């Protein structure tokens, strides 16, 4: 059996706990036997981050900038309990936050669909990819508790002089609250580009919902910038792919999402994305079936599972017990990264391998062979579940047959 050659390096970021255990198995059983690949490896496990004063995370992000594609295992974001548990020098920041700080960009999440798990919304047949604009709005707001009568104004004072712009928010006669928020044209434009780039990658329509009938200036700006960037930079390529950009009011978007069959990318303002991504994750079935990708404005891609390190399962594993932990999102992080690598390298055979891997994994579940979390939501209910390693070996055997 000759291996598939991957031309350029892929940045690999190892992680923590149960996902680290599965990561190793996935590589050993599902990747290395089939691929001739150069992995630029960074150990983002908590111990190594501590040892390197977190420099390793910065180096990994720089490597993604160089090679354009990375795949990341889930990692511990330490709080005080973890500082004690691992005897850490300090409470290191979230690696995802650090990497995003360096690359910029937008995180898209999409569910892995299998025919024997029915989404809570009956009409959904295809994944809904959701992108959240993780900048500004209410997450960077300022608020004042108004104690009693007085005037609340919105004031902008231009740098270097000029008349300030003032608007009355409210003339208070009794106690209340006020809030100020902002956004940046540059951030909205980066968000729009990431959405259109990833929409084109997935060959799906891009939807944006906002409330520009009420918020003519603020939400209106999102609509304007998206429309302009679409027309100027993406319309031509979208036309060729047979996809389009669709703007609608946010309430109409939500109504359509619930009635539609999925198969589009939903660009969400910050708050909408926060709320809707959790709704979609739970309506599609399971966190263990949700993948995530960071797309930077320069076209760098970082793939990962949306879930964490599955700490509870890891403690069982450490105690010598067998676990039934679902590796699907990890596997799809690898297949997503390989597909992108193949695309950028002009190596369709790498994309074909990614597809084979996904098909093998999905067909295992559709054959009724799955981990415990899936048994709870699959129809018909399988009579038993597989352990983590049994499930990975089952996928490996399917993959070998198809390879
Ligand atoms: P988690 O790892 O996502 O797991 C929460 C629960 O969801 C698990 O206990 C398990 O439920 C279920 N679950 C998640 N993934 C599963 C899988 N693959 N297979 C089966 N069940 C799965 O969240 P957490 O336990 O709250 O967080 C653990 C650590 O992960 C934290 O240190 C956090 O900082 C980190 N984290 C990292 C990332 C990242 O790197 N992107 C994201 C989130 C959290 P049951 O226990 O009921 O079986
Ligand atoms: Mg949320």
How does this model look, in words?
It is built from 14 helices and 16 strands. Helices cover about 45% and strands about 20% of the residues. β15 and β16 (about 300-305) form a beta hairpin. A ten-stranded mixed sheet has the order 4-2-5-16-15-6-7-14-12-13, sandwiched between helices. Strands 1-3 form a two-stranded parallel sheet. The longest helix is centred in the middle third of the chain and has 24 residues, at about 220-240. The chain folds into three domains: about 1-115 and about 290-403, Isopropylmalate Dehydrogenase (3-Layer(aba) Sandwich), CATH 3.40.718.10; about 120-140 and about 185-285; about 140-180, no CATH class. It has about 400 residues and is an alpha/beta fold. It starts with a strand and ends with a helix. NADP nicotinamide-adenine-dinucleotide phosphate (NAP) binds near residues 308, 310, 311 and 312.
């Amino acid at each position: 059996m000759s291996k598939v050659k991957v031309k350029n390096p892929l940045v690999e970021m190892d992680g923590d706990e149960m996902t680290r255990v599965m990561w190793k198995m996935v590589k050993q059983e599902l990747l290395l036997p089939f691929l001739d690949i150069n992995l630029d490896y960074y150990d983002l496990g908590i111990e190594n981050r501590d040892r390197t004063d977190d420099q390793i995370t910065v180096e990994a992000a720089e490597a993604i900038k160089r090679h354009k594609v990375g795949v990341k295992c889930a990692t511990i974001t330490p709080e005080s309990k973890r500082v004690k548990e691992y005897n850490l020098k300090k409470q290191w920041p979230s690696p995802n936050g650090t990497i995003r700080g360096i690359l910029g960009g937008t995180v898209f999440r999409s569910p892995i669909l299998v025919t024997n798990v029915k989404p809570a919304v009956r009409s959904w047949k295809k994944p809904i990819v959701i992108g959240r604009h993780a900048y500004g709005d209410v997450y960077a707001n300022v608020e004042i508790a108004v104690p009693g009568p007085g005037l609340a104004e919105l004031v902008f004072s231009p740098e270097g002089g000029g008349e300030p712009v003032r608007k009355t928010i409210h003339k208070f006669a009794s106690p209340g609250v006020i809030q100020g928020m902002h956004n940046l044209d540059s951030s909205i434009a980066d968000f729009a580009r990431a959405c259109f780039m990833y929409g084109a990658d997935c060959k799906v329509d891009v939807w944006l919902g906002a409330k520009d009938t009420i918020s003519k200036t603020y939400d209106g700006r999102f609509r304007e910038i998206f429309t302009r960037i679409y027309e100027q930079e993406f319309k031509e390529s979208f036309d060729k792919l047979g996809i389009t950009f669709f703007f609608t009011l946010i309430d109409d978007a939500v109504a359509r999402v619930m009635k539609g069959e999925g198969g589009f990318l939903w660009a969400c303002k910050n708050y909408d994305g926060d709320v809707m991504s959790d709704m979609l994750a739970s309506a599609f079935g399971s966190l263990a079936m949700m993948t995530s990708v960071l797309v930077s404005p320069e076209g760098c891609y970082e793939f990962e599972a949306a879930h964490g390190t599955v700490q509870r399962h890891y403690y069982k594993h450490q105690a010598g017990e067998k676990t039934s932990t679902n590796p699907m999102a990890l596997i799809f992080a690898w297949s997503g990264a390989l597909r992108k690598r193949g695309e950028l390298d002009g190596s369709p055979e790498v994309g074909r391998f990614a597809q084979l891997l996904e098909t093998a994994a999905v067909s295992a579940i559709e054959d009724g062979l799955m981990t415990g979390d899936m048994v709870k939501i699959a129809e018909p209910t399988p009579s038993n579940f597989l352990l983590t390693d049994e499930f990975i070996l089952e996928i490996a055997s399917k993959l070998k047959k198809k390879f």
